[in-house]
Structure formats: C-alpha cells, structure tokens
Design goal:
Number of strands: 5
Largest sheet: 3 strands, antiparallel
Number of domains: 2
Shape: elongated
Distance between the termini: 26 Å
Radius of gyration: 23 Å
Structural class: alpha+beta
Strand content: 5-15%
Oligomer: single chain
Number of helices: 5
Helix content: 25-40%
Order of helices and strands: EEEEHHHHEH
C-alpha cells in the first residue's frame, strides 16, 4: 500500500488514515502531519448473507467530457466591479438588470461568493465582459513519479508545508 499523497510505502497491517482538506486518505507518517489522524473505521455490525443477490453497483467511468471545459478567471470580482463602475451602474442597477439581489452582487464583488456558471453568464452578458476562460487539459501522465507508476495526489500538485 502507498501513501496517497507522496507515494511512499505504508505498512498494510497498520495504515494511517488522516483527514486532509476534508478528505480521509491513507498516508505515511510524514504526510499525516498535514492533517488530523482519524480512528479506524468501525467494523460492520452485521454480516451480509451469501445467498442474497447483491445490487448491481457499477462504478461510473468518468471521461474528459465530464470535466469542465471553462473556468472562472482568477480576479473575477475585480473585473465585475470595474465593468459595473465603467458603465456608471450601482450594485442595485446591476442586480435589477440580471434579476439578482444586491446582496449577491456585493458578495461576488467582495470575493466572498463565487458565482455559478448560470450567474457568471448573466454577468458576462450584462457587463459585456469575459469571465470564463477555456481550460487546457493537462496530461497527468507527465507527473508520474512514484516507484510503482501509480498516480498520487502529491505527484500532481505541490504540497504546501506548514
């Protein structure tokens, strides 16, 4: 078994499970410091009968089509505010034009809220700006670096140490 972050070997008889950024992962001792160590999952209280047919639970295979092809630009909140101000509109005016509450416009402009795709497209149309940009598909095979050749989280992203 390998650490899901760095790819180092993890002892199978005593794996460490740590909650890192909201996800519980099997990690090595060093990577467990990045999160909080979790208790072993409880054992099931019942044993499933062998003669009972199981439900067909196939795992869904995800394809490139399932991945988003557009992404919100990094400083969307400043762009929205600048475009609104250049048109001479108040937040109330913009809210009326796109049929949204002023509080939503305020939260977006302050960066406290990220608009969903539908709202982003309404803002783009009303303000005549581009907020969505095309996402380049990255070939994850170029990031492989573990000894077994398996992809780990650490082989794809840079780990920010505390």
């Amino acid at each position: 078994m390998e650490c899901e972050i760095c790819g180092k070997p993890v002892p199978e008889h005593n794996p460490i499970r740590a909650k890192i950024e909201g996800s519980v992962m099997v990690v090595c001792k060093e990577c467990s410091k990045l999160g909080t160590i979790q208790k072993a999952p409880p054992k099931p209280r019942y044993v499933q009968q062998k003669n009972k047919p199981q439900k067909n639970t196939k795992n869904r295979n995800y394809t490139r089509r399932d991945e988003p092809s557009e992404e919100l630009i990094e400083d969307f909140n400043n762009e929205i505010r600048k475009a609104r101000e250049s048109k001479g509109w108040s937040r109330e005016d913009l809210g009326r034009k796109i049929n949204e509450r002023v509080s939503v416009i305020t939260r977006i402009e302050t960066g406290k809220m990220t608009p969903d795709t539908k709202l982003t497209k309404k803002l783009e149309k009303a303000l005549n700006i581009k907020l969505l940009e095309k996402v380049n598909n990255v070939d994850l095979n170029q990031f492989l670096n573990s000894s077994s050749g398996e992809r780990t989280l650490g082989s794809v992203m840079k780990i920010k140490r505390k």
